[in-house]
User: Fold these one by one.
Assistant:
Number 1:
Amino acid sequence: MRASPRPTPARSAEHDLPEGVAKEHAVEAMFDRIAPRYDRLNRLISLGQDRRWRRHAVAALHLAPGAKVVDVACGTGDLCNVLTAGGYRAIGVDISAGMLAAAHTVAPLIRADALTLPAPDAVLDGIVSGFALRNLVDLNQFLRECARVLRPGGRIAALETAEPESPLLRAGHHVWFRQIVPFLGARLSSDPDAYRYLPRSSAYLPPTDELLALIRAAGFTAVRRSTFTAGAVQLITGTRR
C-alpha cells in the first residue's frame, strides 16, 4: 500500500476525503465516469481560461525544440496538444482508461500510474501536469519519480488550484469553486458527486511553503511559483538538479 502524505490543517476540515488506496481507486473511477463530458465542463468551470493556463505552463518549460516532455495525468490530451504545438515531443500518461479513450491528441498515450512512470532514469527533458497534484496518493513519491526520469537540467511545470490572497477575491473564489461549480456539475454532468469532490480535493495540497520545500527536497532547484486569474491558479516550475 502506498503511503499518503501527512494530513495538512486544510485537510482536517475535509475529514471525509479518501486516503491511500481508497483515494487511488476513487479518483480513477471518478475520472473514468466523467471523461465523456470532461472537456466541455472544464471550459465552463474555468470560464475558458484553462487554455491560457496551459499555454503558460508549456512556455515556462524553456526547453529546446524537439525536447521529450511527458504530460502526467494527461486526461483527454489538451496539454499534450499545447506541447506539440510548441514544438515538443509530447507523451501522455494517465491511470484513467476512460480519459485515454476520450482523448483527442496525436501524442502517444500510455496508461500508467504517475507514481511509477514507465521510463528509465534520466531520459526525459520535461514533465508537465495540469491540476493533478491534489489527486495523487503520495506527492513525495511523485516528485521523486519526476526527479528520477528527468535528465539533469530537465524541467517540471505543474498547474494547480490556489487561493487568492485578497480576502475579497478569496471569498468570491470560494463562492464560485465550492458552490457554483458543484451546482453546474450537478446539472450538466452524469456524476454530480465528482464536481462536489473536485473543489474539496484542494484540501489535499500542502501549504505553499511546504509544497515548494517538497519539490526542492526531491532534487529540484530554481523552484518558482506564479499565479493567474487573481490568484485562483498557481504554476510551479523547477529544474532538475
Number 2:
Amino acid sequence: MAMLPLYAPAMAALEREYEVLKPWETADPAAFIREQGGDVRAVVSSTSRGFRAQEFDAFPKLEALACFGPYVTIFDLQRARALGVSVGNTPDETAEPVADLALGLMIAAMRRLCEADRFVRAGLWPAQAFPSGREVHGRHCGIVGFGRIGQQLAKRVAGMDMQVRYHGPRAKADAPYPFVADLRELARWCDCLVITCALTPATRGMVDTAVLDALGDDSFLVNVARGAIVDEPALIAALQEGRIAGAGLDVFADEPQVPPALLKMDNVVLAPHIGTSTRENRDERTRKLLENLRAHFSGTAMPYEVKPDD
C-alpha cells in the first residue's frame, strides 16, 4: 500500500511489480485502510508523511515500511522494531538542489522575476515601464544554519561576489565565513536572510517580529528549511506593512495550505516545497525504493535499512 501519491515514475514502477493500493483515491481513505490493511505486507510512505505508532494497528501482516526519502524522523522506529517490521529509506544528497533553489528564490525575489513574468503576460510592457529590482551581486547574504545546505549556498552566493556571514548554535571551526551569534545582528547586516537550518524546539518561531524588524524594509527573507521556523503571522504583517522588501518561500507552517494573504502579494515568490524535487533526485529515490522492496520480498535485508538507533 502507498500512503500518498508519489513521483509518477515511482508509482508506475511500483505498479509494474506489485499490487499497489491507493487509499487517497477512495471516498473514505480511513475506511479503505481498515478494510484492506489486513492483507498488506509492505507500506510505502515518505519523509513528510511518515508512519506513526497507531497506524501499525491497521496492518497486522505488515513486514516492511519503505520511505520514499532520506529522513524517517516521523516514522515510529521503536514500534516497527517491536513488531519486527523492517524500515528502509532512500538516502541521497539533498544539499545541492536545495541550495540551488534558495539561490533561485533569492534572485527571483530581489530581481522581481515573477512580477516581471506576470507584467509581460498581462500585456503591460508596451504601455509602461516595469519597476526596477535590486542587484544581487556584491550584496550581503546571511545564512541561518550552516550545515550542508548552508555551506552549499555560501559557495554559490560567494561566486556572485556576495559577502557571507552565518548564524547557528555554534561557530564551525573550518567555516571560512564570519559567525554571528545574535540572529538579529545578522539580520541587520544582511540584504537577504536565508533560512536553511533544521526545525527543532530551539529554532521553531525563531524568525520573529524582532528579527524581521532588524532585517528592515530594504532586505529580503528566503526560507527553504521548514515553515515553522518563521513566525508566519509576523512575516505576513512585516510584508503587508512594508517592514521588509519581499520574500521567497518554499515552505509554510501548514503545508499544503498557504495563507491567502501571501497569495495576494506581488513581492513574495511562492514554491510548493520543491527543494529536493528534481528528476535526478526522484529517479535516484525510485531506484533505491525498489531495491529495498525487492530485497525484502526476496528474503534478504534491505540495502538501505534504517535501524531504530541510526
